[in-house]
Amino acid sequence: MPGGMDLKGDVLNNSICALCGACLDWCPYIKNLEDHLVLRFDCNVEHGRCYSVCPRTFTDWQMISEHYLPDTPKNLEIGPYINVYQVKANREVDGKQDGGTVTTLLKTALEAEFVEKVLLTSSDDHVVPQAILTADVNEVEKAAGSRFLSSPGLRKVIDAQLSGLEKMAVVGRPCQVQALRKLDYNNRPENHKVDVLSIGLFCMWSLKWDFKDYLETQFPNEEILRLAIPPNGFEVVTDQQVGNLPFEKVKEYISSGCHYCLDMTSELADISVGALETTPGWNTVIIRSQKGQELFDKAVELNYLVKKGYPEAELDRLKQASLVKKARAIKVMEEAFANGMKPFVDLAQPDYVQVMKLTEGVVK
């Protein structure tokens, strides 16, 4: 298995890093400054953990999916799933992004002792992401809301392993859930193994940390309270106003690695959660595993969550949006691989071929 220098050549030098954080803190050679990841010194270690867990090194994602979700009905567009629900918290969650569902699921997981701790992304200023590993429900509630800057939050997994944690929940973007699965799949027998319940977030892209500097130019001397993407654009709520930024300008700050992402709905998670765009204040919840279903059912049983059947038209729209994201990423990868980048996905696999057939004429 390749090591650190291969990670540098294949991933970092090609600007395809997802900044998931899975390689950080395992290795003294790899460091980050905000969203800049570097290999500080030449590393000749073979069989590197960094390479084995990276979501941008070669992976057969169909094989990984079948390994972790073997009994879940397959779906080309949004990945394997058991059920899809329209969901919101049964009480108000301060700082929530949509329905407060993720915060409520984490609260349930801790209170019902599904897990000992949870790993999620918080923020002291509502902009800069900060990974926390906690058993404190108050800290979980404080972390409510989305973070749009790329967060290397999986670096905290090493804390969980070194502390001997047995069970934890992890909230992450699709790339982070992918890294979690690879970390578990490639775990060496001598390393402590943590039983992870994964809550994946819907994600079209994340933003470079330069975006916070742009925010400061647009809202000088104002405290950012909330960032959101309602149907009308990119919304910034400050202590003085509710402002909107040009969406095309915001997209200039999309992290380069996001253009290679095939996954919009965290297809390898136990539960996936995103906005329900047609109904403000509600979430879309996709149940993918029995572990995920048990946690969700417990939250409903405790009257923490309200659930409804999912609108068929909205499910069709979600599937189409996910399909288009896959097709766009495939096109980016096809061009990059043709120009000499080392392939990290086998685009000849039937699923990827089928995606391109279904989106022919839709994705330019």
Report on this model:
This protein is of the alpha+beta class and about 375 residues long. It contains 12 helices and 13 strands. It has helices at about 5-10, 50-55, 60-70, 100-110, 135-140, 155-160, 175-185, 210-220, 245-250, 290-300, 310-340, 350-360; strands at about 30-35, 35-40, 85-90, 115-120, 130-135, 165-170, 195-200, 225-230, 235-240, 240-245, 270-275, 285, 305-310. The chain has an 8-stranded mixed β-sheet. A 3-stranded antiparallel β-sheet has the order 8-9-10. A two-stranded antiparallel sheet has the order 1-2. Strand 9 (about 235-240) and strand 10 (about 240-245) form a beta hairpin. The protein is globular. The two termini are about 35 Å apart. The mean pLDDT is about 95.
Fill in the keyword field for this structure.
12 helices, 13 strands, 3-stranded antiparallel sheet, 8-stranded mixed sheet, alpha+beta, 364 residues, globular
Q: SSE layout and pairings?
A:
Blueprint: H1 4-12, E1 30-33, E2 36-39, H2 49-53, H3 61-68, E3 83-89, H4 101-111, E4 117-122, E5 130-134, H5 137-142, H6 157-162, E6 167-172, H7 174-185, E7 195-201, H8 210-218, E8 224-228, E9 234-238, E10 242-245, H9 247-251, E11 271-275, E12 283-287, H10 290-301, E13 305-309, H11 312-338, H12 350-358
Parallel strand pairs: 4-6, 6-7, 7-11
Antiparallel strand pairs: 1-2, 3-12, 3-13, 4-5, 8-9, 9-10, 11-12
Helix pairs in contact: 4-10, 11-12
